[in-house]
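User: What would this chain look like folded?
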Amino acid sequence: MANIKTNSNINNTALPRSITLTDSAVARVGYLLDAEKENTKSNLMLRVYVNGGGCSGFTYGFEFDDKVEPDDHLFEIDGITVVSDNASLDLIGGSQLDWVESLGGASFQLKNPNASAQCGCGASFSV
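Assistant: Here's the prediction, encoded as structure tokens.
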């Protein structure tokens, strides 16, 4: 499990409102960040968020971002900064991001303990 350090918006008793990364996710995000930083030279973070939509009601989103909004929470995980907003953390707090490789392909998968159901591909969920 990766080491987690949070910003002042989250106290240590609120870790269920955090996001963790597996070692394979840390390695893959680090690789992608290094490639992206060569092009942008920005201090990029991995933003994890939730949008409405998909076949189950909500969809997961991942992107690199260099901005921090007032309602964002930051998590430092083995040198990678993960950022997520309050509304998203209400739905995905306590989740673990994993990088999974199989014969069918490779993808990031969010293991969300708050999801009551998810679609077959795992891209959308309901609570």
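Helices lie at 23-40, 86-92. If you want, I can go into more detail on any region.
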